[in-house]
Amino acid sequence: MSLLTLTNARPRSARVLPGFEITLGFTIAYLSLIVLIPLSALVFKTLSLSWEQFWQAVTAPRVVASYKLTIGASFIAALVNAFFGLLLAWVLVRYQFFGKKIVDALVDLPFALPTAVAGISLTALLAGNGWIGQYLEPLGIQLAFNRNGVLIALIFIGLPFVVRTVQPILEDVEKELEEAATCLGATRWQTFSRVIFPALAPALLTGFAMAFARAIGEYGSVIFIAGNMPMVSEITPLIIISKLEQYDYAGATAVALVMLCAAFVMLLLINGLQAWQRARSGASS
């Protein structure tokens, strides 16, 4: 019997979940209902505007100021969360201390809290008559009802995304690799930068992207602490809500489309960086 006949005679490996065509069809249908159809409705509603009307709606000075605040604060908050989220994940994975389980549970608190509750809590804490704000405001440090409040709220709601993305990857990093690097004479910084960080970089980028995407669409926790002053501390989601309340549906969808494109481009860049990082790690291994 020939080798080709033996090869063809071998039974195909059974899939764990059979029925690929059916499951793929359900997946595409589900994504279409939940994601693609709502987004296409956003695009089609915006197409009811002429180009001049669309451009006027998305480039009004008040709207442009909200873009700068929303995207800029979201980016800075995601960077802060990437740093402190990595630090917090490191502490939770590598050290044992009293109250560790409580700290680990508190990380998920922004997930569980309604956004309005988070905003009210931050306002009660940081306002001029709040628990912390009453001591900072006499020193000229105002953390509520301005851009600082927006940034703090976005940091608060975005931290869990980084921690929960990095934590399982850090748990899987083999400590033997660190010990081998130390035995070969590597310093602590060299061990972290050349052994640990390359393994964590894709997860850290994912956490950064998720925190950024979450922050760019945040509304409930921000409006309570931002002050919502036009051209100063007004976020883009509030602009969209205001246009909806004025029955300017086309204008609201136009602004929303700009934010959607900004978030999509950011996520596309992050995914490109992740692919490059994986390819670089594969080539170096």
Note down, in words, how this protein is organized.
By secondary structure, this protein is mainly α. It has a domain at 70-234: MetI-like (MetI-like fold), CATH 1.10.3720. 78% of the residues lie in helices and 0% in strands. The chain is built from 14 helices and no strands. It has helices at residues 3-9, 20-46, 51-58, 61-94, 100-107, 109-112, 115-126, 133-136, 147-172, 175-183, 188-216, 220-226, 236-245, 249-284. The longest helix has 36 residues, at 249-284. The radius of gyration is 24 Å and the shape is globular.
SSE order and pairing:
Layout: H1 3-9, H2 20-46, H3 51-58, H4 61-94, H5 100-107, H6 109-112, H7 115-126, H8 133-136, H9 147-172, H10 175-183, H11 188-216, H12 220-226, H13 236-245, H14 249-284
Helix pairs in contact: 2-14, 3-14, 4-9, 4-11, 7-9, 7-12, 9-11, 9-12, 10-11, 11-14, 13-14
Second rung of CATH, namely the architecture of the domain at 70-234? Orthogonal Bundle
Rg, Cα atoms, Å: 24 Å
What structural class is derived from the secondary structure elements? mainly alpha
Number of helices: 14
Uncertain regions spanning at least 5 consecutive residues: 1-7
- How many beta-strand elements? 0
Helix content: over 70%
What is the H/E order? HHHHHHHHHHHHHH
Short descriptors:
mainly alpha; 285 residues; globular; MetI-like fold; single chain
Summary, kept brief:
This protein is mainly α.
